[in-house]
Amino acid sequence: MSNKKEFIPMALLKWYYKAARDLPWRKTKDPYKIWVSEIMLQQTQVDTVIPYYEKWIKRFPALQHVAKAKLSDVLKSWAGLGYYRRARMLHQAACQIAKNLQSKIPQTPLELVKLPGIGRYTAGAIASIAFGVRTPVLDGNVIRVLTRLFAISDDVGKGKTLDKLWEIAESLVPGKNPGDFNQALMELGATLCTPENPQCQKCPVSSHCKAHEKKKETYFPVKLRKEKLEKKRTVALVLRDNGTVLIQKQPETARWGCLWTFPHWENKKMMIKDLGTDLKNSKHRLTIHHGFTRYQIRLDVYEKQLTHRYFSREVRINFRAFSRSRWVKVRDLAKFAFPSPHQKIVKELMDHAN
Predict the structure, then answer these.
(1) pLDDT for 213-233, tens place per residue?
(2) Residue 317 banded pLDDT, cuts 50, 70, 90
(3) Neighbour-count burial of 93, counting CB atoms closer than 10 A to its CB (0-12 exposed, 13-18 middle, 19+ buried)
(4) Domains with residue ranges and CATH for the chain
(5) How confident is the model at residue 314 (pLDDT cuts 50, 70, 90)?
(6) Which residue from 185, 158, 180, 210 is spatially nearest to 8, judged by alpha carbons?
(7) Do 211 and 149 form a contact (C-beta atoms < 8 A)?
(8) For residue 299, what are the CA distances in angstroms to 181, 202, 237, 304, 348?
(9) How many angstroms from the chain centroid is the CA of residue 29?
């Protein structure tokens, strides 16, 4: 492995300096901006992140701006990226750094992982890219590259295998330009060493790749337990009254905490149980299909027009179902932060507004 440890960093860095994609967060060494990009890139593709990142940096150019902002404003800028816990943790960490560390982001992985929302990978990325600390990173792309380079056939779903991969990654990081090397590893996995149809003929380290030598590139990484996508069906209600619709702010501890949604339930029976038989004849407006990492959602959206703001006695009894709610004109819905599935309802309503 010693020859590999010497060859791989040099070959990868040489390739990276010529072939790296021109991404906005690669034009800075500002730890705050690198941190934001790494958090956004979790579970989200680069092409999706770029416009959100640019809009975010324009709105919050420095850590202090995030720390001073209301959580609702932070979530508004994040709306559409999904996995909103990332934004809440980013806001919480920014507030913590501003209060306790004079707005200075820690430089070492050991200190960075103490912050909300920053794990070992993100800490390594920030420390190496922004501060030049010799420390490894290990994300999905790097796992794929390393398991192929060294033909590691152990299950990457197991902790022992990941520990082994962390050790290998650390052994490869050079003392000079560790951040560029880590980005080169990730870049290789994102652009050439892809899950399907890897472009080995363009790979700068294919001559030292055991999987390529065995012609078993797509065999790696090995994951014995495959997660099945769970299918879920839910319902939402567009409740109309005199040109307005009802929306709800979700509790901070909820999955879509502090975001706005239309009233929603697991199924139509629960909606009717909560709001009464007045809702039995609700009109079906549209069906939305939305995918997440572990499950797929079918969201059936119903619509009901009220003749006045005071519901029937049966609905009023269950008014608690509409806690933290407000009536909003359709044209004003864009001012509120909605999660992606409910953003699609907003778009439908605004596209067909009178």
Answers:
(1) 999 999 999 998 766 777 888
(2) very low
(3) buried
(4) 2-219 (1.10.340.30), 230-351 (3.90.79.10)
(5) very low
(6) 185
(7) yes
(8) 43, 43, 10, 16, 14
(9) 22
Cα 260–Cα 36–Cα 30 angle in degrees, nearest 5: 150
Residue 198's pLDDT is what? 97
> Which residue in the list 6, 38, 187, 230 is annotated as catalytic?
38
Q: What angle do CA 37, 161, 118 make, to 5 degrees?
A: 25
Which residue shows structure tokens 């299918």? 231
d(CA 256, CA 84): 7
pLDDT at 308 over 70: no
pLDDT in tens, 266-279: 998 888 887 776 67
CB 325, CB 261: distance < 8 Å: no
Could you tell me the two tokens for 194?
A: 């892809």
- The pLDDT confidence band at residue 310, using thresholds 50, 70 and 90, is very low
Distance from C-alpha of 145 to C-alpha of 226, rounded to nearest angstrom: 20
Q: Tokens 């909003």 label which residue?
A: 328
Least confident of 61-65, 217-221, 235-239, 277-281: 277-281
pLDDT tens string 1-12: 557 778 999 999
Q: Is 196 a catalytic residue?
A: no
98 pLDDT higher than 60: yes
Distance CA 282, CA 302 (A): 6
Contact 237, 279 (CB under 8 A): yes
Alpha-carbon distance values, 118 to 18, 106, 304 (Å): 30, 12, 43
E-state strands within the chain:
230-241, 244-249, 260-261, 264-265, 283-291, 295-305, 325-329
Q: CB of 152 within 8 A of CB of 221?
A: yes
State the pLDDT confidence band at 253, using cuts at 50, 70 and 90: confident
